[in-house]
Design a protein that fits this description.
The structure is a homodimer.
Chain A lengths: L2 H13 L1 E7 L15 H6 L7 E5 L3 E5 L4 H7 L6 E4 L8 H8 L5 E4 L6 H10 L4 E4 L2 H5 L12 E2 L2 H4 L3 H14 L4 E4 L2 H8 L1 E2 L12 E4 L4 E4 L7 H9 L2 E4 L4 H8 L3 E4 L6 H6 L3 E4 L3 H6 L4 H31 L5 H13 L4 E4 L4 E4 L23 E6 L1 E3 L2 E2 L2 E6 L5 H18 L2 E2 L9 H9 L10 E3 L8 E6 L17 E4 L2 E4 L3 E4 L2 E8 L2 E6 L17 H18 L6 H9 L7
Parallel strand pairs in A: 1-5, 3-4, 5-6, 8-13, 11-12, 13-14
Antiparallel strand pairs in A: 1-2, 2-3, 7-9, 8-10, 10-11, 15-18, 16-17, 17-20, 18-19, 21-28, 22-23, 24-27, 25-26, 27-28
Helix pairs in contact in A: 14-15, 16-17, 16-18
């Protein structure tokens, strides 16, 4: 059993807490968090990006989703913590479990600034009258806890934003009025960065800065520790009439002073923040989040440019990888990923990866969010499939792309799965639909080829991507299960969403093919513009599984890849691309 | 301008109301209502099944959806009431309109027992601090108002229900506990009928009885006026421990006395009922509604039988119709519908239509909920399309079916639209998907053939159907726009839903093809079992628009129709069915 679990239980006893909840949450409920906030990881040893640890005096369990089942099973072995596989039929509901395990008339503990308000509400739903003790018990046992990161904030240029801060504040106030609210408290760092046309680097991979923003009908106040702001940033904020409060602690008092009606996004507000707001609340997706979901014309144009840069890097990487194998050179998951990083570094405006590169050979690719590890690096063999999921931040946008390709001979199972995934990817990209279509309606286009064969994959088909921002952006998403965001998750011009069906055979292989799509409205109906231009691997395709229309879509895409990318290549790369994008046909 | 509008404004002035809302709602928020409750119809003259009338001192507007645009435009002509076409891009949001038109610090009036609580809440969201005056002003000007209907209640047999009232009450209490509630107030008459295994006839087409039901952890109380209950019904209720309160007025006091947490379905609870409940509320789909959405094995078996009976009647009707035309006999919308009624009357266990039959020739079929009218009956000509949407209540289930067929030569536009609608119908029925798939994900299967051609239709692709109950049953539905029910509208064994894509060309023709589907779980994945067996019209099909798979699905369905129905036909009908279901092929 883990030492940290024993020490946490000691603190629980002292604090009078019978059950403690730890998640890797910060006070902004960010997806990626500064190491300072990784309490779940500290206690459990599980390093996956998403999970919730619940500890009682004699049991402990960790809930995580399909992306992390395999990784979590390995990391939680002998920890004294049971793995709960969310979405599996026999997985107990976390809230049910809590209500069953909690001794009568005892209290639940957690760090109230770092837990989503809707989580504590669901607990209250299950256990009416439950009392909560908000205390950072993990902090008390965390001797070498890392310091909080604070880096300077950067101001975007006009050519990057397409809309000034003053204009965005007006848009947000209009949205608040439409929703019957007078003000809003924004905890989500990406919403703040978008609103203020500024970016930071406080969190790995997410170009945001730790802060809070309160907007009412007259004023806008940014709560941020003083060391973040350069003179340029101060001038920029002053020009838009945004006041600066140099102590983030003060946001809780300020939220408490709001009157009228306050728009609150429960999913992105902490227990403590929600309790601070005493005024009447209107619940729903944040106003800035709703607006930034539809990229403006400047953002769309820049995204197209960023995608060309990124597609050149990844296409060259595919050539490099295939060529090394052909030459008989040794490639490992880590050395390959390092080469991809170099190729991105050569591109105009590249500022860093948008998330940790997944470079996974063979069975490792079946772990959806696998990260290669230098200490146990894996050599690529001349058979089976290699999967690479990566993305970049550019001066003109954020990218996300996954390709899977053959390293040598494939099994029939691999070829069939690859072909069905490719068909799903292309059919979703080709969908035509009216404005306002619920995004989850479109998931069928991507999954039908797999479902018809009794196959499926355990993650969303698509997620929103930010503009020079987080690689996962709410509310956009293409999936087949309903969520709280459904009514805001509608398709219209400017939605920027990934198209990434996959298939995972545990212990054998993993396949995912991901392009980024921009929703465009061509007069009457909407459709998608695919903005990623990197070949699929025709060596993996079983043409007999494709309809004529599938073959047409496949060849059309490859022809576009060739046209867009070949001008940026030279010599052998050009020749290879011509071959790699040559039309396929039924025999 | 309508006289009724002028008189209503007089009453508004007396009552101190600046804006009055009238909808054809009863105190159970039923879809079909007793004539007593049709205030919107009384004031506006619009006879469509769904609409909301808003009247100010100098303006009046009526919101209705795509099914009724054409009908409403005709009926509202010169009424002084503006038609608001919901879903059209330029249609003002009703709540926006109300907040714009309402004079400062004035009151909104309505009959609080006959208005959905979520409607008044949305108004409060738009106009914080608004005051409401609950008063039935329409009642004050309605001199010859019809009396309320009260018919005796019938008890279902065990072979019909598959589950006793005691078992259902236990299931409901389990569901309440899962949702964190101790009790529930049920206003929805179909939920009450299902729970108590009883049926009534107080409302046209819906076999329910006007009543309320309160269930807590220990007791269940039915509020119903005494004249409804036969001795058999009293014994049946006593056996299950259900108490009877013979004064429906008392339900409001009883709701007010509830303590603990009360599950309330806001969409099916009136403003006044919601305000009566002083205990803490848990909002969401009603517990009985959630359970009855998944038909049990007995219900599914009976539904299959009811569907065979109904399919025989409609198949024979199609033969009759085509034969009459061939013989050169005169057919009208009304005489044809009368023949269909006769054919249903001959079937075992038929108890009446489940909604008014839509029998529509030519351009009339473009009005989705058109009803033929004897006073201006329409003769069927020997060209174009005829559409018939109808359904029956049987001792063993409720049906709903639409067929469209050729009366003579068709235009290319008609043939193309018919073929695309047929393809959509068959593809949805053939869908394969995991348990728990959001129903709206599947809508893409039905709409893709139309969307790919820049076409669409302005109603849901599917709605839930009750078992010996209402032909429209929540929460099931297949559509591409998000609603409040999405998180409960998931697919699993026993969901009974219609599959009815269509296409409507205003002033020209209308097409709809509707089969009923039962969701079945064949081991790993779910799929649909089509339970309606009536031919499509191969004369309307343009095979060149179909894929090989579409042709296979079409022929497979026709072969099943022949097999199931031919044993019940004789002579010329048999010959005709053989021809009508003969395989189609590409030339």
């Amino acid at each position: 059993m883990r030492e940290e679990l024993i020490r946490l239980r000691n603190e629980m006893e002292k604090a009078g807490v019978s059950l403690y909840i730890a998640c890797d949450c910060d006070d902004h409920l960010s997806e990626y968090v500064d190491d300072y906030y990784k309490s779940m990881k500290f206690v459990s040893g599980f390093t996956g990006g998403d999970g919730t640890l619940v500890v009682t005096m004699d049991e402990a369990a960790l809930w995580t989703d399909g992306r992390y089942f395999i990784q979590a099973a390995i990391e939680l072995k002998d920890s004294g913590i049971e793995l709960m596989k969310m979405g599996e039929p026999d997985c107990p509901d976390m809230y049910e479990w809590i209500s069953e395990k909690l001794p009568k008339s005892s209290a639940i503990g957690f760090d109230g600034r770092c837990i989503p308000a809707n989580m504590t509400e669901r607990i209250e739903g299950k256990i009416p009258g439950i009392s909560f003790i908000s205390a950072d018990l993990v902090g008390r046992i965390w001797d070498d806890r890392p310091a909080k990161t604070q880096n300077p904030v950067m101001v975007l240029k006009d050519w990057q934003t397409g809309r000034t801060v003053s204009e965005k504040l007006k848009d947000i106030r209009d949205e608040l009025s439409k929703r019957g609210a007078d003000s809003t408290v924004i905890s989500a760092c990406d919403d703040i960065a978008w609103t203020l046309n500024m970016r930071g680097s406080d969190i790995a991979y997410n170009p945001v800065f730790a802060s809070f923003l309160i907007i009412d009908t007259e004023t806008a106040t940014l709560f941020i520790t003083g060391e973040h702001l350069t003179g340029e940033a101060m001038d920029h904020l002053a020009e838009a009439g945004v006041r600066v409060e140099n102590d983030t602690e003060k946001v809780y008092e300020a939220a408490g002073r709001l009157s009228g009606r306050v728009l609150v996004e429960k999913e992105m507000t902490s227990y403590e923040m929600l309790n601070c707001i005493r005024a009447e609340k209107v619940f729903g997706l944040g106003a800035a989040a709703r607006l930034k979901n539809f990229k403006n014309a400047t953002e769309m144009d820049n995204i197209r440019k960023a995608q060309i840069e990124d597609s050149i890097a990844v296409t060259r990487y595919m050539y490099f990888f295939k060529h090394e194998l052909l030459m008989g050179n040794v490639l490992t998951e880590c050395t390959a990923a390092a080469r991809l990083h170099e190729l991105r570094t050569e591109r105009t405006g590249f500022n860093g990866e948008s998330f940790p590169t997944i470079s996974a050979y063979g069975e490792n690719a079946a772990m959806c969010h696998y990260e290669p590890d230098e200490s146990r690096d894996v050599v690529v063999e001349e058979r089976g499939l290699y999967l690479c999921d990566s993305g970049g931040h550019y001066d003109c946008g954020t990218t996300d792309i996954t390709r899977t390709w053959a390293c040598g001979p494939l099994t029939d199972e691999e070829r069939k799965a690859y072909t069905l995934v490719a068909i799903g990817n292309l059919r979703l990209a080709a969908a035509v639909f009216p404005r306002g279509t619920a995004a989850i309606t479109l998931d069928y286009a991507a999954r039908k080829p797999l479902w018809d064969n009794g196959m499926n994959f355990n993650h969303g088909t698509g997620h929103g991507v930010g503009y020079i921002l987080n690689v996962h952006e709410r509310p956009a998403g293409i999936r087949y299960r309903s969520t709280a965001y459904d009514c805001f998750n509608v398709m219209d011009e400017g939605v920027y969403v990934s198209d990434e069906p996959g298939y995972y055979a545990e212990g054998k292989f993993g396949i995912r093919l991901e392009n980024m799509l921009l929703c465009v409205n061509n007069g009457g109906m909407c459709g998608f513009e695919t903005v990623t231009f990197v070949p699929f691997d025709s060596e993996c395709i079983d043409v007999s599984l494709m309809s004529d229309e599938d073959i047409r879509l496949y060849n059309e895409y490859h022809s576009a890849v060739y046209e867009k990318i070949v001008p940026h290549l030279c010599g052998a790369e050009r020749e290879w691309l011509k071959e790699a994008t040559a039309p396929i046909a039924r025999f």
